[in-house]
Amino acid sequence: MKEEMYMKMAVDIAYENVITNGGGPFGAIVVKNGQIISTGQNQVTLINDPTAHAEMQAIRTACKVLNSYQLTGCELYTSCEPCPMCLGAIYWSRLKVVYYGCTNEDAAKIGFDDQFIYKQLNIPPDQRSIPMYRMLPPNTYAPFNAWISRPNKKNY
């Protein structure tokens, strides 16, 4: 099965990333119609970017290659179940399916625990471990109002 081949490749990317000191043990591949569109590996510590997860890197590159902000019809193969940030990007990019290897529980056992983020989402913003406070300057809604009245906008 091709799915197994792509999954093995995602895991191989993750393994190679670790042994070459590229970053964390995560790899990902975006495929469309049986063609590999992009690959990604975790580069958080390599490029000092907390968003440089393997899935994010693969999604960013695939969007550039396909010249689209949506990956409709694409599949994502990732060595580990996506974190909350990557999950958001998966939904925003409209991938059709995700295949993953290790689970979030497996990742937590080696120090990559995303459960605290999932828990934070259910806590009122001002009570989270990083408190979030709503502020309403006079121009708060100006960008939204400009968007609503903008002709020929690209909805996404």
Report on this structure.
With 156 residues, the protein is an alpha+beta fold. The protein has seven helices and four strands; from the N terminus they run αββααβαβααα. It has helices at 2-19, 44-47, 54-66, 84-93, 104-109, 115-120, 142-149; strands spanning 27-32, 35-41, 74-80, 97-102. The protein has a four-stranded mixed β-sheet. Strand 3, helix 4 (84-93) and strand 4 (97-102) form a beta-alpha-beta unit. The mean pLDDT is 96.
What keyword list fits this structure?
156 residues; globular
Shape: globular
Mean pLDDT: 96
Q: Please give the oligomerization state of what you see.
A: single chain
Class per helix and strand makeup: alpha+beta
Cα(first) to Cα(last) distance is: 34 Å
The rounded Rg comes to 18 Å
Number of strands: 4
Low-confidence segments, ≥5 residues, pLDDT <50?
none
Order of helices and strands: HEEHHEHEHHH
Question: How are the SSEs ordered, and which strands pair?
Answer:
Elements: H1 2-19, E1 27-32, E2 35-41, H2 44-47, H3 54-66, E3 74-80, H4 84-93, E4 97-102, H5 104-109, H6 115-120, H7 142-149
Parallel strand pairs: 3-4
Antiparallel strand pairs: 1-2, 1-3
Quick recap of the structure?
The chain has 156 residues and is of the alpha+beta class. It has helices at residues 2-19, 44-47, 54-66, 84-93, 104-109, 115-120, 142-149; strands spanning 27-32, 35-41, 74-80, 97-102.
